[in-house]
Amino acid sequence: MISKINSSITLIILFIISPVGYIFSQEEITRQELKDHIQFLANDSLNGRFPGTVENKMVVDYLKNDFTANGIFYDLQEFTARLKGDNSEVKTWNVIGFIEGKDPKLKNEIIVVGAHYDHLGVKEGSIYNGADDNASGTAALLEIAEKVKANQKLLKRSILLIAFGAEEQGLLGSAYFVDHPTIPLDSIKLMINMDMVGHLNEENHVYMGGAGTFPGGMQLMDSLGIPNQVKPIVHAGSVAGSDHVSFYNKGISVLGIHTGGHDHYHKPTDDIENLNLDGEVKVLNYIYSALMAIATSKREMKFIPQD
Ligand SMILES: [Zn+2]
User: Fold this and answer.
1) pLDDT higher than threshold 80 for residue 7
2) CA of 166 to the centre of ligand 1 (A)
3) What sign results for the dihedral spanned by CA atoms 91, 48, 247, 241?
4) Which ranges carry the Peptidase M28 domain (predicted)?
5) CATH of the domain at 283
6) Residue 299 gets which letter from DSSP?
7) How confident is the model at residue 6 (pLDDT cuts 50, 70, 90)?
8) Cα 300 to middle of ligand 1, angstroms
9) N or C: which end of the chain has fewer CB within 10 A?
10) CA of 167 to the centre of ligand 1 (A)
11) Three-class secondary structure assignment of 214-259
């Protein structure tokens, strides 16, 4: 325990070296912190987080800073993305964090938690803010990372957190990662992807594909619904639509989680006003519970292919 004088000095130093906000951050997943992250990510000033833009790099720096503030920054993985439309090539990044497990053996087994941070940019004068797609998942990644880090001592397995670039251009960030993994690919025992988790409906439906790709996945994802006040719609297969596909194609167990489609999907109206932030807190508690159940368990993980 440090003395009072020391701790106030530490506090002053923290104030000087960290952006305001971080030192007040809570370990719990809170509506306010989610809102703060999404307000930044889905702000008009970021022009839709399009790969290759200055604003895209601003998001990368924001994510890196948040990981660094939480003591989990691991790597900035640069890659070249070929854009849909005009086929031009731009530089962008995957932002990676790491939280090591405590079991001498199982810490070599990795669970990846991912979310893409890019979106569609500006088209015909309209800014596509992508509040649900996928500021919601990116904010989720930061909040879950913070809570896992605070509970690191419970972990047996290790956690790799990846904010993917250029997903909207064809899953490019995740494709680059699995082709240039910063850790042995066969150490990854599960990849949990969050893409559009901000529109929980009145029935509290959380949808997921891939729950049958690892042992006990169906039962686990089902059983965590009630304690977290959500109704899981659990599919064994149905692996499609986002970055987890890149991992599944390499023979890795996956779980792709979302709260469903809606009228604002890939429209300029995908704004923070249309999100269900209280609902997203429930979704994140649900995902956190699943992640911790697997990361703190000794149960053997293996890939179970699905049709
Ligand atoms: Zn998306």
Assistant:
1) no
2) 10
3) negative
4) 94-283
5) 3.40.630.10
6) P
7) very low
8) 31
9) N
10) 7
11) CCCHHHHHHHCCHHHCCEEEECCCCCCCCCHHHHHCCCCCEEEEEC
- Note whether residue 85 is domain-resident: yes
Distance 102 CA to ligand 1 centre (A): 33
Residue 304 lies in a domain: no
User: Contact 38/275 with Cβ under 8 angstroms?
Assistant: yes
Residue 8 C-alpha to ligand 1 middle, in angstroms? 43
CB 232 within 8 A of CB 208: yes
Domain count, the chain: 1
Task: Give me the mean pLDDT over the 178-198 stretch.
Answer: 97
Residue 47 lies in a domain: yes
Radius of gyration of the CA atoms of the chain, in A: 19
Q: Ligand 1: distance of its center to the CA of 98 in Å?
A: 23
Ligand 1 centre and the CA of 197: distance in Å? 10
CA of 42 to the centre of ligand 1 (A): 13
